[in-house]
Amino acid sequence: MLELRPNCECCDRNLPPESLDAMICTFECTFCVNCVGNVLGGICPNCGGELVQRPIRPAALLAKYPASTKRVLKAEGCAPVRAA
Questions:
Q1: 64 by DSSP, 3-state: which?
Q2: Which InterPro entries does the UniProt record give (predicted)?
Q3: Which of 9, 25, 33, 63 lies at a 20 to 30 A Cα distance from 52?
Q4: Domain-located, residue 76
Q5: What value does the mean pLDDT of the chain take?
Q6: Contacts with 48 (C-beta within 8 Å, 6 or more apart), sequence order
Q7: pTM for the whole thing?
Q8: Cβ partners under 8 Å of residue 3, min gap 6
Q9: Residue 15's domain spans which residues?
């Protein structure tokens, strides 16, 4: 079950469960579409994996399976990933 984290780890922008601007990697690191496109180049700075659009949990299921309220923020901010 996806956590549906509530914010971008780079800029701390709110990303509610219904947001189309939330992007995740396979470890559920969560970033906004702006940071992914303009800073990260589509690559997760934590694991190096691809960032894709987070799916939307149907509203009817949010009551039974609520989104996470735990905010994760990179203290050092986000820097572009360097190519190897």
A1: coil
A2: DUF1272
A3: 63
A4: no
A5: 93
A6: 81
A7: 0.89
A8: 28, 67, 68, 70
A9: 1-65
